[in-house]
Amino acid sequence: MFRNYPNLSYTVLMLSLASLALLIFRKKGLADGAARQPNVIYILADDLGSGDLSCLNPDSQINTPHLDELASKGLVFTDAHSGSAVCTPTRYGILTGRYAFRSRLKKGVLGGYSPMLIESNRFTVADLMKKAGYRTGVVGKWHLGLDWAKTDASKAINHAEYDADWTKNENLALEKGITAGPNDLGFDHSFIIPASLDIPPYMYLRNDKPADPHLTDIAGNKTPRGVFWRDGKGSQRFDLQKTLDVFGQEAKNFIIGAAKNRSKPFFLYLPLSSPHTPWLPSEAHKGSSKAGIYGDFVHHTDAVVGAVLHTLDSLGIAENTLVIFTSDNGADWKPGDKEIYPAHRANYIYRGEKSDIWEGGHRVPFILRWPAVVKKGGKTTQTICLTDLMATLASITGQRLDKNAGQDSFSFAPLLRSAGDPAPVRPSIIHHSIDGMFAIRRGKWKYVDGKGSGGWSSKGDASDPEGQLYDIENDPSETTNQFEAQPAIVKELRALLEKHKAQGFTRTL
Hints:
Helix content is 26%, strand content 17%. With 509 residues, the protein is α/β, with parallel strands linked by helices.
């Protein structure tokens, strides 16, 4: 057809070949030579510290054989951080690639009846994966708010109570389930509890409907330390102690079902409810550690992860499945726990605990395994944030993020195949505490915009400088505040923090 237009024929041919090459690249992503794009499983522990895993802390008093094996066969990130020092905002950042302080939640966490935090028009990681042809699922602790159906439109839903008539078993609200939840945010399948395991309502929701709509009053528990949950409503057959194993089984069911369609990869977001309080290890795991029932619950968590990994092996799909294991913040390991179990350092060498702006609040374990691509036994000191999932998966699946998506997400995909040490993944990282205190890190310097921990550890002293500055490279335990000794660096980092807060993004759009 181009007989009389040889130049046009050549041009069209070259354009066609270029388009074909781009299509092949996008289909393969980083899985060069793999049969198809990888399955992805993102496992999020709840309140697990960097020092809890025996592969990361040689002095850990907890045996974590399955996570140790995962690390030995994958890539360990030693400078990974959650987007916040507490769970709800971190989960927002994971699924949106956006710091949660940009949302309506400026501090703290949501309750079990809080409305959905992720905006209805917000692009999520699940949306991204669906665009790439993935089957998407979430199994586990949600804690991002749900828009519950109401029996009386004039009544409000607040942080702690659902203002409806709970006395009726066939409550209209329970018949309808929720009006907005995970299935409205890109997930094809969802099986969740609304919030943490110590926050009512205590029930499973399968695809936005209560699995058991018959409610009862569940009495709270105050003692011993760690075995705590609040009074509230819950499904009659809900058993708090079995929750972790239920999530493990549901995850395996999703993987088995999704794997039947070999032409379509799957993405599973698996936010576990452990080892957050209440610490409820099963009988099989009691006494398995030297760190009390907390350590036993971590060991139980390790076993559930091991069961999921075994499922991949049994199906023959482990080679081209990207597994990421991390935690939503640091461990809730308090001074009293340290006194009882002095040999165990749940947050390793890092100062503070869950909730804090100090490293113990947000430096988290991060292990990645992808046998088809990632060389086993690797370790990187590159700084990453859990908000980086979106940009990384976009790179792997050959997609380009819109400027209104993943505003604080940076791809660490270059680290997965690198034989050397490539350029830094991100130019800076912002930290956020439960009380809304900010910090910013660039290179080795970390500037904290206030006194104390910004959380439960310390409010600071009146005589303290108005801010904090630490050399994280040489002083990772944050023992020496250089705020007054380095005024130029303080000024520069403070200005950078304010710029990033005001402009609404950190990734170059």
